[in-house]
Amino acid sequence: MEYTEQQKADFRQQFRVRRQRQLILAIPLIALFVVFTVLSDEMRSGTVAGLPVSAAVPAFLILVAGAVVFSFQNWRCPACGRYLGKGLNPRFCQKCGAPLQ
Predict the structure, then answer these.
(1) What angle do the packed helices 53-74 and 5-38 form, to 10 degrees?
(2) Are 32 and 63 in contact (CB under 8 A)?
């Protein structure tokens, strides 16, 4: 499909916003994963950063599930609305060909 220059500019702008949201989401999740990994020895004693494992692990899993749901809704092509896939830096939508960068 052919798009006007204004539409292409809008797609690029919307993609920048979506990509920024993905990065903002990823950074704290990676940090939490690292904390859980580093504190895995502490988890054997029944606590994580002072919280009981019975509270910390479910809270972490809920956060991860929420992040996955958010990502599936956010990481979509601004032109056709389809999921953009696993890559963080696509140049164009694989489904409709809309330019993203």
Answers:
(1) 170
(2) yes
Picking from 28-32, 72-76, 77-81, which range would have the lowest pLDDT averaged per residue?
28-32
Domains in the chain: boundaries? 5-74
Q: How far apart are CA 53 and CA 63, in angstroms?
A: 15
Spatial distance between the Cα atoms of 63 and 61, rounded to a whole number of angstroms: 5
Cβ–Cβ under 8 Å, residues 83 and 89:
no
H-type alpha helices, 39-86: 40-44, 53-74
Residue 50 pLDDT: 66
CA dist 52 and 4 (Å) reads 56
Q: Torsion angle of alpha carbons 78, 16, 96, 73, nearest 10°?
A: -50
What does the pLDDT read at residue 32?
80
